[in-house]
Amino acid sequence: MEIFADALRDGIAAFSQGTIDVWGIVWTSLQTSGTAVFFSLFLGIPAGFFLGTRRFIGRRLLITIANTGMGLPPVAVGLIVAMTLSRRGPLGDLDLLYTRPAMVIAQVIIALPIVAAVTAAAVGAVPREVRLQARSLGASRIHEAILTLAEARLGLVAAVAAGFGQIISEVGAVTMVGGNLEGSTRVMTTAIVQFTRMGKYGPALALSAVLLGLIFLVNVLLAAGQHSADRFERT
Amino acid sequence: MEAATLTATGIRKSYRGRTVLDVDRLELAPGRTLALLGPSGSGKSTLLSILGLLERADEGTVELDGRAVTHRDRDARMVMAAAFQRPYLFKGTVGENVAYGLKLRGVGGAAASTRVAAALERVGLGGWEANSALTLSGGEAQRVALARALVLEPRVLLLDEPLASLDPLLKWRLTREFARILGETGTTTFYVTHDQDEAQVIADDVAVMNTGRIIAHGRVEDVFGLPADEWTAAFLGMEPALSGVVAESEDGVARVDCDGIDVYAVSGVPVGAEVLVAVRPEDVTLFEARALLPPSSARNRIEGVVVELTHSGATYRVVVEAGRVRMAARVSRQAVADLSLETGVGVTAVFKATAVRVAARGVPGGV
After folding, report:
1. What is the sign of the dihedral through the CA atoms of A58, A62, A67 and A73?
2. Nearest Cβ partner of B88 from A133, A138, A231?
């Protein structure tokens, strides 16, 4: 157990003495993951709404693709994004490899299918008649969509939780496209891997604690939202 | 708000190559309730969706006060409101549900609260604003759905089997309440149902639909009194109308000769006219054959034989044949026992001349 005691002591020291820029790493994580979550929801919720509520040729195929996408190996995503953004890749001219935008792109690709598939399942479970009822009271298409999403809000909370969880704890893809550059693309997960490899268990443990605390905090907030949505569930 | 006239003309709708709706014309008169009756799958709900501008017809026109309107016409949709068989209440409180349409119309604050309270009061749920909408019983939920539509003070109200999923006791209580509320509001109402008793309580006019077509349309007493054809008669629990000729007319009472059987009816049809006559099963009373009956206002006394006896809920439906004349009677279980009714037993069918509906042949509706 001594290894844990030593690591805990070193971790506290790293925080208090500022020998390692822990808060800079945390801030980078929040910025990239926050941006990625925003884009995942911005694109994934409308896509999921469309998949869950509209009937069109190829819908089943798209849902299957979204469901398959939920199990996308992050390293495979990292590889494809890295190749695409590399100098010889189709988007090499953008010079984005080993930057935060590259990390955001990879994270969005990983989280988008999750958000879309969970949203599609949630809105698909709202009876079509709810929209018909709203329309009969004067709702426009936009009003119908807002009402459907409100009816499916428990599922949407699950979509946000799943998307955020996947993004914040992902390490493979962000390492490959971000490069773990100190002060620039080093985030909590890549830093934890780096410190562990170097035998610096203290800072690694400290960052893990912050990461866990952050995930816990977000889930507390989501649970509060879920509870609020739960108040009017059918009993 | 002034009641509206809603007219559908030449409405056609197909699903996967199968025609589900083929309606030449249907008119909802201002301030009146039209019940659309028909068996399940006859196209009633589809017609309601098209009339309510919720769904597009393949062909045809819907006119509101003489102006052609479509599902894209939000102004037209804003003067309509609907409630369906399953009261789909939105997650939230009763008050939020009732206020939903008001919010869409930009009505909020105290004005909305007052109108919501009044609408809930009207359906017997005064003060229920803060209750969760999804914990209500079926009857309560259906009232909230009605209040959610009524609060908008619509010019056209569309109700799609709003009471079909309720237990019989509650259904009858709400049927009477709905009839009262619709009478008070004076809104033009389209009421879809497959229950003719409900239609008779609620509606002023009735249309009967089968396989996507309107086969009878008129005032309640006309459509229910004189079935338009054999299918309608069977659907309404009657025998097809009898053909006859007015043989005599005196003091407003016509004697109609139906293949040798005289049927007396209060009617102004001239002597010699070829007519159709019919009588509702509940207006026919059965007695033993050749019973000595005391004088009464029941002018018609027809000797016949029971040819059909079927159990129909709490009552029996008895078909009596006299020569080529057939008529149905609805009698109680006790009457079946007292008269020892069974197929082949002779009976006297008695009914008033005022209970007989008469129409000149080829002219729908009574005369």
Report:
1. positive
2. A133
Looking at residue A232, what is its pLDDT? 56
- How many structural domains are present in chain A? 1
**A191 domain-assigned:** yes
Contact flag A129-B86 (C-beta cutoff 8 Å):
yes
Residue A214 lies in a domain: yes
* pLDDT one-digit tens code per residue, B215-266: 989 998 888 888 878 888 888 878 888 889 999 998 889 999 998 899 999 9
Tally Cβ neighbours within 10 Å of residue B314.
8
For residues A63 and A7, give the distance between their C-alpha atoms in angstroms, rounded to a whole number. Answer: 46
Nearest by CB to residue B134, choosing from A130, A140, A232, is A232
Domain assignment of residue A203, given as a range: 2-230
Nearest Cα residue in chain A from B92: A232
How confident is the model over A208-226, as pLDDT tens digits?
A: 998 999 889 988 988 887 7
Q: What is the mean pLDDT of chain B?
A: 89
Distance of residue B1 Cα from the nearest chain A Cα, in angstroms:
17
Tell me, what's the pLDDT at B67? 93
Domains in chain B, please, with CATH? 6-235 (3.40.50.300), 242-290+297-360 (2.40.50.100)
ipTM: 0.76
In a domain, A207, yes or no: yes
Cβ separation A151–B91 shorter than 8 A: yes
Q: Is B95 on the interface with A (CB under 8 A)?
A: no
Mutate to test the interface with B, among A137, A140, A143, A154 (most CBs of B within 10 A): A137
Are residues A232 and B91, on separate chains, in Cβ contact within 8 Å? yes
Q: Determine how many CB atoms are found less than 10 A away from the CB of residue A198.
A: 10
Helix axes B109-122, B94-104, angle to 10 degrees: 120
State residue B365's pLDDT score.
46
Mutate to test the interface with A, among B88, B93, B103 (most CBs of A within 10 A): B88
> Is the residue at A30 inside a domain?
yes
Q: What is the CATH number of the domain that holds A199?
A: 1.10.3720.10
- Residue B155's H or E segment, with its range, is none
Cβ–Cβ under 8 Å, residues B316 and B309: yes
User: Mean pLDDT throughout B26-31?
Assistant: 92
